[in-house]
Every structure is written in C-alpha cells, then in structure tokens.
Design goal:
Mean pLDDT: 88
Structural class: alpha/beta
Strand order of the largest sheet: 3-2-1-4-5-6-7
Shape: globular
Strand content: 5-15%
GO molecular function: hexosyltransferase activity; UDP-glycosyltransferase activity
InterPro entries: EryCIII-like_C, Glycosyltransferase_28, GlycoTrans_28_N, UDP_glucos_trans
Radius of gyration: 21 Å
Protein name: Glycosyltransferase
Largest sheet: 7 strands, parallel
Order of helices and strands: EHEHEHHHHEHEHEEHEHEEHEHEHHHH
CATH class of the largest domain: Alpha Beta
CATH architecture of the largest domain: 3-Layer(aba) Sandwich
Keywords: Glycosyltransferase, Transferase
Helix content: 40-55%
CATH superfamily of the largest domain: Glycogen Phosphorylase B
Distance between the termini: 22 Å
EC number: 2.4.1.302
Number of helices: 16
C-alpha cells in the first residue's frame, strides 16, 4: 500500500508517527509523512518520504501570546480563552495546513491515511479519494467513557456521568470551532458540505476507527469503548542505535551516583531563567546530581556546579535508563519514555493533556504527585525528587511497569489494526 501519515505539532507529535511509518515501510508499504517543515530532516533521516507543511502554528508558540497559552492554559476553559485571543493568527495557518494536506495527498497518491488529531483535513481527503483512514492518537481524547475524564478538564471526581460529559462537551466545542474550516475545505476539493459535522464521524455518519498508541499498563482500555477504538501500546522510535554520546556526558555519568534528568522540552514559558534557578536550587537542596536538558527554546543555565550537567538533547532511550528518576512536563512522548525506562517520574505539567499524564503516573504508582508549573518552587521540587529516588514502592512499581511496556509490540499491533482497517475502505465512502 501507499500510506500517507498526516501529523502536526511538537517533536512528540511527530516521533511516534515516524516510528509507525518505519514499521509500515519494513512490512512492504510505501510511506509518506507530512508534517511541519522544521521536522523535514528528522523524517528524511529515517528514510521516509516527506511532504511539506508550514511551520506557522508552531512559530506562534514562540511568541509572547503563545507562551501565555502554555503558562496560563492549564485547563480546558483557559485553553478556550487563550485560543480566542490567538484566533486571528491561528485561522490562516489552519487553512494553509488543510491545503497542504491535500497537496501531500496528491503527491503521495495514498491507499490509506493515518492521521494525528491536529490533521483536520484527513477525513475529507479520504472521502474524496475513496480510501480508508484511521485516527492515531497518543492521548485518549475522543471516545467518551465513564472510566476517566477528557484530559484537559479539571478532575472533579464526580463519577462516570461527568467523565462522559467532558468528552461530549469538548467534541461540541471543537466541532463548532473547526466546522467553518472543514466546510470551506470540502468545497475546495469538490465535496458537498455536511449537515452535521463531527470530528470522529464520516460524512455518512460512520465511525472513524481510532488507534490509541499508548500502553494499557498506563491507561487501561475502558470496557465501554466501541470496537472501533483500540489500544496498541506505544510506538517508540529508538534513536540510540545511531547516536554517540559526547565524552563529557559519559564522564559525568561515570563520576558518581545516577543523576536525575530534568527537561521541559518546549515548555519553558516566558521565564526560563526562573525554571533553571528552581531546578538548580532544588537539586542542591536534595543533594542530588542532575542532568538539565535545555531542548527547544528551553532552560538557560550559566555557571552550573559540578554536580549538574547541561545537555542540549540526547535520545531518551539511551539516557533515561541511566537516570535515577526523570523530571519533565508530562508530554505524552516523554512520559512514555520515562515509564519505558522503568524510572520514577516527577511531572510538572504546563498545558493541555500534561496534567492528565501527571495524574496517571501518580495513580499507577510510578511517581509522586505531580506539581503544576504555577506552583513549582524549590521546596516542592526538592521534596518530589527526594521521594522519587528513595521511596522503594515507587521505584519498584516504575521498574515493573517499564518491564511490561518493553514487552509490548505497539508498532506491530498498530500495523495489524491498520491492515485490517485498510480492507474496509468503504467506511469513508458516501
């Protein structure tokens, strides 16, 4: 088959789709992956065909308004509020992404489409081409359930009715926002408008198959989900095979006890110096060695003590197994990497689904209670790192979960699901 993968977002929104694409290619399929141009080299380095998407939406994150979104939008209501402020910037970027997705499809001539939740054009394109598609998501954010709430909603502990309500509410809000884009796009590619738009339904009301690419050791598949929604396990991209660590990093690791990793990816907010200061002082207060990853737009550090080492980045599959614990923002990909390594996680959520993963890690016993970034200070971070490195129950649970995750074949399970769905390509036809 010719398979088109449409994805958009940060590196964590691209990496698992590259892993899946490589797996599909190894089983005899031709794969084209369309995403932001900032990740073109990343895609092509892994021998996948690349199709262009602009970088405009990601660039908004680097603006003051974008940093406000990350710092202030720690629940769905703040996300909506901040999203309204950015509407004028976001609308043309989204419209361009829809057109570029169609251009990618014309380039790839696919028999099947796999798409990330942000790839809004996928379903209309599949309908136009008369082919099958599946939504592949690293977050349980589409299928209503009594078991847990939509990730960005507050945890009110009101039971199953509230949990299910949150999914319906976010679908209504999302559909209201994107319906205009989708209707215009359908017209552009020669499709009739739909009377009732739903992001997880075909134009004729059929269910879109949904592939959840995370582990049931972290979030068990709810019993009340339909058969079209499945959980496969994580899709990991192992970069360590082709990576050589710098000698000074090796020397630091060998010079003492395993350190703690601290990295917040792109979530540095408007005051990265404040984060760096808290991290450094918390490590010293807890008497722990640390590795600080600055990452994309990340922490600024100067004059570090000998017990702290700064890196720009390193493959998580190489670095995390060598750590005593990992401290991060709770992005789906970094959370997966920490759990796979079998290391306790301290999560400092900033935005979106990150509080959900922080809660899940704590609930399954693989880390202490998460610390919202607004409440992060030296005392709370120091205490959490101390707990993560001394609490034997947490250490053992994290190790056990890591062993379970490493035994899973997320990519193989996902490919089996995709091959099955490809035989049902009529699902998107009218």
């Amino acid at each position: 088959m010719n398979i088109l993968i449409l994805t958009y977002g940060s590196r964590g929104d691209v990496q698992p789709y590259i892993a899946l694409g490589k797996g599909l290619q190894q089983t005899g399929n031709q794969v084209t992956l369309a995403t932001s141009v900032r990740f073109q080299d990343f895609v092509e380095t892994h021998d996948l065909n690349y199709a262009y998407m602009n970088d405009d939406l990601l660039s908004i994150v680097d603006t003051d308004d974008g940093k406000d979104l990350m710092e202030k939008a720690d629940n769905v209501f703040e996300i909506i509020k901040q999203g309204i402020k950015l509407k004028k910037q976001v609308k043309p970027a989204n419209q361009a992404l829809l057109r570029e997705s169609w251009e990618a499809a014309q380039q790839a001539d696919p028999d099947f489409i796999i798409y990330h939740p942000k790839a809004l054009a996928a379903v209309p394109i599949a309908e136009k081409l008369g082919i099958g598609c599946t939504l592949a998501t690293p977050i349980p954010m589409f299928v209503p359930t009594d078991a847990f709430r939509f990730p960005a909603f507050p945890n009110l502990n009101l039971g199953g009715w509230y949990n299910r309500f949150t999914f319906h509410a976010i679908r209504i809000l999302t559909n209201m926002v994107v319906k205009e884009y989708i209707q215009d796009f359908r017209k552009e590619i020669g499709l009739k408008p739909v009377n009732k738009f739903d992001s997880i339904k075909t134009a004729n009301g059929g269910d879109i198959p949904i592939l959840h690419i995370y582990s049931e050791a972290v979030v068990r598949r709810p019993d009340d989900w339909p058969d079209c929604a499945q959980v496969t396990g994580y899709c990991f991209l192992d970069d360590a095979v082709d990576w050589t660590p710098p000698q000074n990093l090796v020397d630091f690791l060998e010079a003492g006890e395993p350190p703690i990793y601290i990295g917040f990816g792109s979530m540095s907010g408007r005051d990265p110096e404040r984060l760096a200061k808290i991290v450094i002082e918390a490590l010293q207060k807890a008497n722990l060695r640390g590795i600080i990853a600055t990452g994309w737009g990340g922490l600024k550090t100067e004059d570090l003590p000998d017990t702290i080492f700064k890196i720009e980045q390193a493959p998580h599959d190489w670095l995390f197994p060598k750590m005593a614990a990992v401290v991060h923002h709770g992005g789906a990909g970094t959370t997966a990497a920490g759990l796979r390594a079998g290391k306790p996680s301290v999560i400092v959520p900033f935005f979106g689904d990150q509080p959900f993963w922080g809660q899940r890690v704590h609930e399954i016993g693989a880390g202490p209670k998460s610390i919202p970034q607004k409440k992060l200070d030296v005392a709370s971070l120091s205490e959490a790192m101390h707990e993560a490195t001394t609490n034997q129950a947490i250490i053992k649970t994290a190790k056990d979960i890591g062993e379970k995750i490493r035994k899973e074949d997320g990519i193989g399970n996902a490919i089996s699901f995709i091959e099955e769905q490809a035989q049902l390509s009529w699902i998107v036809r009218i």
